[in-house]
Amino acid sequence: MKGKLYLIPLPVGGADYRDVIPGNVIRITLGLRHFLAEDIRSARRYLRSVSRDFPIDGSIFYKISDIDDDKQLAGYLQPAMEGHDTGLLSEAGMPCILDPGEKIVLKAHSLGIKVVPLTGPSSVFLALAASGLNGENFRVHGYLPVQAPDLKRKISEIENRSMSGEAQVFIETPFRNQRLSGFLLDTCRPGTMLCIAADITMESEEITTKTISEWKKNPPQINKRQVIYILQAGQK
Amino acid sequence: MKGKLYLIPLPVGGADYRDVIPGNVIRITLGLRHFLAEDIRSARRYLRSVSRDFPIDGSIFYKISDIDDDKQLAGYLQPAMEGHDTGLLSEAGMPCILDPGEKIVLKAHSLGIKVVPLTGPSSVFLALAASGLNGENFRVHGYLPVQAPDLKRKISEIENRSMSGEAQVFIETPFRNQRLSGFLLDTCRPGTMLCIAADITMESEEITTKTISEWKKNPPQINKRQVIYILQAGQK
Fold first, then answer.
1. How far is B55 from chain A (nearest CA, A)?
2. Are A51 and A25 in contact (CB under 8 A)?
3. What is the DSSP letter of A162?
């Protein structure tokens, strides 16, 4: 019988694992001895942090990347093909959601390996739930373009789409957050709603939804923080 | 000082809460005495199921709906304005994600009440992670139209959009799943990828991604099950 491929979520930004990982997910994770991870050191560190007795040396870790070819993907899944349950670990949050892993999962489907997603934090979903914006019709864009003219064009395009009431979700790397928020305040209409969700699940978590004109009176301070942006110009 | 509005996720379809709800989320939930819920009976049942000693009679429950007016919304948040932490409970999964609650959350933002999303299961996100399809660019549509011509048109429109590699996520009520899957198999191109994620987090969970032509050889059996659909025609 083939092993399963478990998708293992990890806490985000140093949050306490008991705040965001269910007890039985920890139990399943600690029962595994085969792991696929973006960064093996942090995977080991996590396992040690939830159980000091975890047999790190009796476990096998494979380093994955998002540019793996078909042969590598098949290699990662060889233990599962041989009957070993295998854990795919994210670096933070849910694997495959704005995070690597989807190629391995798709390969698992094609090999008839059962894929089991385990519950844990997903910053995008938590931010959307806490935004008060449209949680039934929404679109996630990942990163927006970096170059100023492309970025401005994309922001306007996204804002126009959201006139229908569809929430538009995107992210930025921490060191460019202050820049992106400036572009948003400059480019968008005064009445457009903008949620800035910073440091989701962390001590410093701060989630605020208000109009562009309200933000302008009191611009966000999000330099080097983890931020999810949600924009919505119209009502559904 | 104002109380906080906690967004409290619940297990889906009778899943064991220890599989999907972190220990500290249970702890926070049991510390509350003010609750907003779509269905008060099931909210009470849940609280009892995680702690037999929970003081149901010493707690206050407000029934919410998705058509509440501004005055009702302000009323729900009165306890928080007076300093009481308040829990907004979903019926299943995350509040506000394909579930009521977003109007209350938006009102909370306008009143300066801190909104705190707690980690728990979100079927849509778990399905997407386990689909192997695009977890960086995706669009969630909620329910598709019911009438046959509108439904066919919408499916084609969604499939065409996904030629760019953007994953398209939608849902259907359980008793119409078999019908919708028939329309999908009839309408879509043979090479389009379709993930059918049934009974997420439950014992009977089954998540399968394959092409329309593969599905046709072995059509899904999803009558009366909880299903998330994810369609993707092209690669990102």
1. 23
2. no
3. G
A65 pLDDT band, cuts 50/70/90, is: confident
pLDDT tens readout for residues B48-98:
999 999 999 999 999 998 777 899 999 999 999 999 999 999 888 999 998
Q: At residue A235, what is the residue type?
A: Q
Residue A74 confidence (pLDDT): 94
Interatomic CA distance for residues B105 and B88, integer angstroms: 9
Split into its structural domains, chain A has a count of 2
CATH number, domain containing residue B172: 3.30.950.10
Length in residues, chain B: 236
Longest dimension (CA), chain A: 62
Distance CA A120, CA B56 (A): 28
pLDDT at B14: 83
Partners of A117 on chain B (C-beta within 8 Å) are 126-127, 129-130, 200, 207
Do the beta carbons of residue A130 and residue A140 sit within 8 Å? no
B59 and B161 in a common domain? no
Q: Does an H or E element contain B198, and which?
A: strand B193-198
Q: Please give the Cα distance from A21 to B189 (Å, whole number).
A: 39
Q: Which residues of A171-182 are buried (b: 16+ CB within 10 A; e: fewer)?
A: bbeeebbbebbe
User: What H or E segment, with its residue span, contains residue A230?
Assistant: strand A227-232
CB contact under 8 A, B129 and A94: yes
Complex ipTM value: 0.96
